[in-house]
Amino acid sequence: MSTEPDAGSAGAVQPGFGEPLLEVSNLKKYFGNSEGFLGPITFDRDGAVPRPTVEREWVRAVDGVEFDIKRGETLGLVGESGCGKSTLARTLLKLVEPTDGEVQFKGVDLADAGGEQLRRMRKDMQIIFQDPQSSLDPRMKVGPIIEEPMKAHDLPESDPSVSARADVRNDTEYAVDVTVDDDVDVAVDATDGVAVADVEVVETEEGVTATAESDLLGATVEEAGDRVQVTVSMSASKGAVRRARVRELLGKVGLDPQHYNRYPHQFSGGQRQRINLARALSVNPDFIVCDEPTSALDASIQAQVLNTMNELQDEFGLTYLFISHDLSVIRYIADRVAVMYLGEIVELADKEELFENPKHPYTDALLSAIPAPDPRATEARAPLEGDVPSPIDPPSGCRFRTRCPELIAPPEYDFSEAEWDAVRAFTRAVDRRAPAIDAAEADEERGAGTLRRELRMTYFEDVDVGGEAGEVVDEAIAAVVDGDPETADALLQEAFAERSICAREDPNYVLEPELGGSVHKADCHLHRGDAD
Question: CATH second-level architecture of 7-33+56-140+263-334?
Fold first, then answer.
């Protein structure tokens, strides 16, 4: 079925298959950590009279994201919970206002779009939410749920760029002239810009009659000598067209069209997600954001829904942004993959390139967490240690550096690999207040000397860090034993962690893909010598 043209992007160049449909540049979304009129106000009580001050901290949920999505492709977006995936999805669709940056959809910056223009553009951008239960109104039947977006956009409407004609089967001795109203594309799908109505003309005892194949069309006949004039026009109301569209979509997503009058609670989780998919398709969108649409489903149901989504993508020419924390799902459905960490995209590459040649340690850690199907497999894993830093005050440079197993040693010290591994482990243990650090405060039973030796045995058993670095380590151990881990942490961070290039410079490298295809983006200083 044809819908109205994108009036919101009048004059924009419409991208063809394989060309960018969505282009995102330096997109940011910050949230104030205190909401309300009095939220950011604090009181300084040091003086006799409390003095109010206004302080607001910002949660950097999305911070400088850049990527594009080509028409007809599926871009997978992965990352740990809380990394900003869902916020990015909502910001792309302008369901929340971006703090900064550009989102170009069909050449139109959504940040500048508003009012009627944005409303018209929204029909081309839909979203499928994670929870198939809560995203459906339990008081409404399935049919009206799927119809709702069409009603909101006053669809269907005829597309003036689509022409109309009829294919006529003439079983009479008369010559037939056919006139087709311009709006029949509302009921008949257009192919290559032409909506074709199938019409049969027959002669009965009552005279010549014409019948349109579509139940939504009517045909009238006027006889004029040895010729017949047939006029094909819409005979159904918009409501009837919408109901027919819903039944058609129910069949396409693998449900029975007779389920039109059922309520959501009468369906399984997988069936509910198919209803969500049908609702998104009802307005003929170009772009669908899929926000973990299969995470709440069993594995077998996941596969069925993913297969349906692939089939619909081929049939309707859809473009997907598919968000998931399940890398096996992403590998099945995506063409390219973006990896997100703490509000930033740290790696972006073609699917096979990323899975076979990950270039960022965070991606490597995510891939190593995928369960091996063979229990005898002995491949080394790289489990992530530590907590994700606060998005209010993210680390400088590479945001993954506080957890990275390959943090680059500061150039001021001539560390061996073993020495740097030991120093890095000790620095992070102090920063995270590991049990060995908390238990190292001197008491009557264990003297300071004993505890210092125990700490050295724990973290530096096989290495002897000397020189200036060794002096810093000695000071830090002494501070820990004296019950002052905060001072020890400050010493170690300033001397080691903050002097690494990983802390001093933002990484942003474009690499040549090893398996061909599009460029391989990796935000990791390990590749500073390999970038184009």
Answer: 3-Layer(aba) Sandwich (3.40)
